[in-house]
Amino acid sequence: MNVFYLESGSLKVGRILKETGASLQVQSQFGKKVKVKGNHVFLSFDHASPDDFFNDVQKIAQTVDPDLLWEAFDGFEGGYSDVAKVFYGESVSLEQKASVLRVLFDHPTHFYKKGRGNFKPATLEALTSAKASLALKKQRDIILENYVKQLCEFKMPEGCVNNLPRVLYGPDKNELEEKAVDRACAKLNLGRRELFKKLSVLPKPEDFHYGQFLYDQFNNSSQHRNNERVEEAVGLSEARVSAFSIDDAATTEIDDAFSLSANNDNGGWRLGIHIAAPGLCVTPESPLDNELRSRMSTVYHPAGKLTMSPPLIVEQFSLSKEKRVPVVSLYADIDPAFEVLKVETKIEYLTVEDNLDLSSIDQYFDPELGVNQPSECPRGRELNVLFQFANKLREMRGESRTHIHRKEYSFSVNDDRVTIKPRRRGSPVDVIVSELMIFSNSKWASELKQAGIATLFRVKTKAKTGLSTLPLPHEKMGLDSYAWISSPLRRYVDLVNQRQLISYVLSEEPIFDATDEVLIDIINSFETKYAKYSEFQRAMERFWCLKWLQQKDQLEYSAEVLRDSLVRLNDIPLVCKANQLPPNSVGQMVWIKILDINLYDNFVICEWINGSEPVIDDFAA
In the prediction, which pLDDT does 126 show? Predict the structure, then answer.
């Protein structure tokens, strides 16, 4: 005896070998012996061989229109045998019954399984919807095959062109374009990057990394959505001081400036630290403010930057030479021993007289010369006083003047070529700028703390490092209170704190109170964004280090062993693995040879060599 049965979700035929109660031992049409439960057997027959029966069923099933079969149910649940009689008549054959069962199993859009051999027809609405979905799937399959065909001919389909950023930077396996790329790569035996290169859509390595960052963090666009000036501040007094800023020549967001004048009352000086004040004019929760909050910070990388503030806002509030702008000023009266006698905060207009170039001052300013600075050093007398005051501030914070800073580097990229130079971190001018910023930020943070004004403090303790609404100390700096306030054009946290400070100075109700959950959300968003931006900056610095290696006609470099197989090159800030390093070489200087560089994946392969002089070779070629 033969049976037509269900196994693992498929209808099969076989010959009964043995009956054991509620189950059967069956030899399938493929010769495999299986155990089949009795309630999984639909039909028994002996008038034909299993193979002939199965083939006849398949042929008959192909002639059955599932729509007509759906109508045979007349909207009610029923067994396959009864439906077969309605469809074929009372004299229905076993093959016809089996073919009906086959169609019922093969069309889940039309029929729902409701137990052994019983089915329920789908409602008209459900069937119409299912058919529409199948038609759409069929259409998508046709488009997919067309995409694959074009890609295999190294032609970029229009659909892929329209979604190129997603295809390159955010592949989604559920999208047609991604499926087409995967299938084309499999057919051509190529990697994705090799295929994109043959399609002429793969950006240059630096553009690829930049594009990936824009896609991930800025919705694939670096453009500002709210690049409009805001209403000017009115009713402010004029600052009667001679102010100057100190920044890199390429700086566009000039947040801070300084002024220094003699104080005839005590023989000392009156120091002014002036911070650009967009917080006076940018309305909280406005479209512009929401965009600034979404960006959170200016993004820096060796080949440029993405500013937090739109260009017209930078132009409106940046402390550029001979431009009248609103500022928040911290004035400090200092005696001849550089003790701070009194501080006060003013909100006023300021016209900056000079924008000094940091590199130029670094070159000429020499603290050892005192007041006798060379003529090439602008504001030499003021810088001399400020440097002495800055050192006093460092001593008061408990930081040694002889603090050793890690060697740093400056990057300059022009026409796809990079120049990397060591930068003297902790130079006298660096000390002036950093200490005056720390001074103003800590003074304002202390005032806000004492006044009980909600502030985003910058803290560092054994238990907490980062931003906090709690006024914890910054132990590394030796400060009881510290907050970022001095860069409101470049960091959203500074803008928030500046608004709180302005409210305090003007005796107005602050925008946020200490229990406001918005502050917690700003902290979380800022720290997440800032970490991503820092990661991108490090990755691009590594990229341009590798680019620098490619530019050099040199394969061998000296390096210091940091640990295990990690080395740091002496010429540039590049840390990489070196193969075959000798044991116990941590801290030693070694020679390494560059074997391969991959700019897309941002890695370099190198190995230790026992050489004494670098070998010159045309590596860039």
Answer: 92
Q: Is 342 helix (H, G, I), strand (E, B) or coil?
A: strand
Q: CA-CA distances (angstroms) from residue 188 to 140, 161, 164, 191, 376?
A: 22, 20, 20, 9, 65
Dihedral pair phi/psi, residue 549, rounded to 5°: -60, -40
What 3 state SS string does 522-568 have?
HHHHHHHHHHHHHHHHHHHHHHHHHHHHHHCCECEEEEEEEECCEEE
Question: What three-state secondary structure class fits 446?
Answer: helix
* Tokens coding 191: 């990697």
Tell me the Cα Rg of the chain.
38
Task: Find all residues with CB under 8 Å of 243, minimum gap 6, and list them.
Answer: 257, 258, 259, 272, 274, 319, 350, 351, 352, 353, 354
Nearest Cα neighbor of 620 from 327, 434, 417 is: 417
Q: What is the DSSP string of 367-401?
A: GGGTT---TTSTTHHHHHHHHHHHHHHHHHHT--T
The predicted pLDDT at position 406 comes to 63
Which H or E element spans position 310?
none
Question: What is the secondary structure of 466-490 as a DSSP string?
Answer: EEESS---BTTTTBS--B--S-TTT
Q: Dig out the tokens for 224 from the structure.
A: 């500002």
Q: Which residues of 113-148 are buried (b: 16+ CB within 10 A; e: fewer)?
A: eeeebbbebbeeeebeeeeeeeeeeeeeeeebeebb
Query: Can you give the pLDDT at residue 267?
Result: 87
183 near 148, Cβ under 8 Å? yes
For the question of whether the overall pTM of this predicted structure is more than 0.85, the answer is no
Q: How confident is the chain (621 residues) per 10-residue block, as mean pLDDT?
A: 90 91 88 89 91 94 93 87 90 93 93 89 92 90 94 93 92 90 94 94 95 93 94 94 92 95 89 97 96 96 94 97 97 95 96 92 90 91 95 84 64 91 83 96 97 96 92 92 97 97 95 92 96 96 96 91 91 93 86 94 91 44 32
Question: Tell me, what's the pLDDT at 405?
Answer: 53
Three-class secondary structure of residue 96 per DSSP? helix
What pLDDT score does 586 carry? 86
Q: 588: Cβ–Cβ under 8 A, 6 or more apart, which residues?
A: 560, 561
| Contact status, residue 560 vs residue 567, Cβ threshold 8 Å | yes
DSSP codes joined into one string, 189-219: T--HHHHHHHTT-PPPHHHHHHHHHHHHHST
Residue 387 tokens, joined: 């440097």
User: How confident is the model at residue 621, as a pLDDT?
Assistant: 32
The angle formed by the CA atoms of residues 173, 179 and 181, to the nearest 5 degrees, is 115
- Three-state secondary structure call for residue 604: strand
